[in-house]
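Table S2 (continued). Query chain:
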Amino acid sequence: MQGRICLVTGATSGIGRETALALAKLGATVVIAGRSAEKTATTAAALRSITGAAVDTLVADLSSMAQVVSMAEAFKAKFDRLDVLVNNAGAVFTDRQESVDGFEMTFALNHLS
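Corresponding output:
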């Protein structure tokens, strides 16, 4: 994975964080994406400390199509390519909710983002 650029969504905890950590240990440049600027910064600092790898962050609520587009544009502004995409962000909402775009929230986050 040396020299590869990898984007992992939902990377501030759980499977996403462990995936980002594994990719960083393999020498990849890892970009972690999450909803919270604080959590993404904390996670990135931890991954850098553990691995010494290049770790960057993007902040976006992926249930919003506008934020998905903004995140993609921010990624393209920093990097010339994407080698690996791990679409890990996801959730299940027990009560019906709608995204800002009018989609059912679970569908918006788990399928459209």
